[in-house]
Amino acid sequence: MRFSLVVLIVVITYCSVLVPPAWSQSTPPDIQLTAAAATILYFPFKAAFALGGGIVGGMAYVFSGFCETTAKRIWIPSMYGTYIIMPDHLSRDRPIRFLGVEAEIGGMPTTPAATNS
């Protein structure tokens, strides 16, 4: 009983994520269907990678003496990036980024600030 409830919740979640937004109605239905199918295949891998990166980044944060810069070097590439494949991705108008980039979160320094001892 509980397993079927979990399966139902997962299916409803996938369906709600894959509903095309109103602005994309001008794209052909075959591209929308392909984007939906690609998301169904791609999303579990990206979500698992992000979850793993969150856990490893959290451990790095603790083991580095609570150095946020160290943790963010793991968190940003693993948690940011593309989660849902859109028709723009398939027409190559927008890149698919499995690994997130710093520019997506706005200006966090990539190298630690120099300190004068």
Walk me through this protein's architecture.
By secondary structure, this protein is an all-alpha fold. Helix 2 packs antiparallel against helix 3. The chain has a domain of about 80 residues. The radius of gyration is 18 Å and the shape is flat. The protein is built from four helices and no strands.
Keywords:
mainly alpha, 57% helix
How many strand units? 0
For the record, give the distance between the C-alpha atoms at the N and C termini, rounded to a whole number: 63 Å
Backbone shape: flat
The portion of residues assigned to helices is 55-70%
Query: What's the main sheet like?
Result: none
SS summary, helix count: 4
Following the backbone from N to C, one meets helices and strands in this order, namely HHHH
Global structural class: mainly alpha
> How would you state the average pLDDT, rounded?
79
Strand % is under 5%
**Oligomeric state of the chains present here:** single chain
Q: Radius of gyration from the CA trace?
A: 18 Å
Low-pLDDT stretches: none
Layout: helices, strands, pairs:
Blueprint: H1 2-17, H2 29-63, H3 68-79, H4 87-90
Summarize the structure.
The protein has a domain at 29-104. It is built from four helices and no strands. It has helices at 2-17, 29-63, 68-79, 87-90.
